[in-house]
Amino acid sequence: MPPLTVGFDLDMTLVDSRPGIAAAFRALTARTGVAVDADAAVSRLGPPLRVEIARWFPPEQVESAVEAYRELYPAYAITPTLPMPGAVEALAAVRAHGGRVLVVTAKMGRLARLHLDHLGLAVDELAGDLFAEEKTTALRAHGATLYVGDHTADMVAAGTAGIPGIAVVTGPCSAEELRSAGARVVLDDLRGFPAALEAMIRLAWKQ
To answer: 3.30.429.10, 3.40.50.1000, 1.10.260.40, 3.30.1490.20: which CATH number matches 5-16+81-206?
Structure first.
C-alpha cells in the first residue's frame, strides 16, 4: 500500500464559504454597480471564479471584475466562513493513520490559505486555481491516494488521476450525479469520512 496522502477540495467540502462568498459578491456589486445575485452564485460553487463572474459582467469586464473580487475577498469572505461538519475530524483521521493532507481547490492558493489559517485547519500541501482535470497534475505530483470533494468535477479529477474519489453531498451535486461521475463512496458529509477511510485502508491491505 502506498503512503497515505488524502486530497480534499475546499469550498463546501472542508469549509462552508457560502456566507463569506455572498458577502464578497455583494461588496463587488457595491463597488462596480453591476448587480450580482449572490444567493444564486453561492448555490453553484465549484467551478472557477471567472465562470461565475462571466454570468454577470460583459466579456471585456470579466478580468477586472475578477481582480476586484479577489481584492475584496479577504475583508469580506474569511471571517464568516465555517468548517463543514466533520472537517476537523476528517483531517484528524488522516493523521491518525500516519497520512498527509493535501488541499486541491479552484480557489486561488493565497485566498484558500487565509481560510485554512483562520479556521486552524492544518494541511501539508495546498494547490490552488485548479478545476476538474486540472487538479490531476497536483494530485499526481503530491502522490494523492484518494481525493475527497463535493462536485462532479472533483470525481472526474480523481478518476483522471487514477485514484478513488470520495464524494460528500454538501455542495451543488446530487448523490446520483456524484456516483455517475465516478465516486467510489458517497457520504452525506465529512462526519462519515473516518469510517469510510478505515474501510478503504482495510480493503487496500487485503489486496
So the answer is: 3.40.50.1000
CA atoms of 185 and 193, how far apart (whole Å): 10
Q: How are beta strands 165-168 and 82-83 bridged, if at all?
A: unpaired
Q: Specify burial of residue 59 (Cβ count, 10 A radius: 0-12, 13-18, 19+).
A: exposed
Measured CA to CA, the distance from residue 86 to residue 98 in angstroms comes to: 19
Q: What are phi and psi of 103, to 5 degrees?
A: -110, 125
Give the chain's radius of gyration (CA, Å).
17
pTM above 0.90, yes or no: yes
Numbered ranges of CATH 1.10.150 in the chain: 18-77
Give the residues of the chain that fall short of pLDDT 70: 1, 205-207
